[in-house]
Design brief:
Shape: elongated
Radius of gyration: 21 Å
Strand content: under 5%
Distance between the termini: 39 Å
Structural class: mainly alpha
Length: 88
């Protein structure tokens, strides 16, 4: 005799939307950590980083955060409308 498969604790769409919400909540923390990286760069000696490179890094992180936020909001908006109406 074969056992029936165990029941799914949480539906896949609900699980995925919750993980996306968790990622959206952690994105500002990730951004703050990435913005703080230039503070760890050496200030004196031969291994200094120029201001222009630091600004390119900051604007690169800024652009990356914008793209990540846009992707997360698009996926949350698409999933929230379908999953939210079915559970209420």
């Amino acid at each position: 005799m074969s056992k029936p498969p165990p029941p799914i604790f949480v539906q896949r769409e609900t699980y995925r939307s919750r993980r996306l919400m968790d990622a959206a909540r952690l994105l500002p923390v990730l951004g703050a950590c990435l913005f703080a990286v230039p503070l760890l760069w050496p200030e004196e000696g031969g291994g200094t980083i120029s201001t222009s490179r630091a600004m390119v890094y900051i604007f690169g992180v800024w652009a990356l955060l914008i793209v990540a936020t846009a992707l997360l909001s698009r996926r949350l908006g698409r999933g929230g409308g379908e999953g939210g109406s079915g559970t209420e």
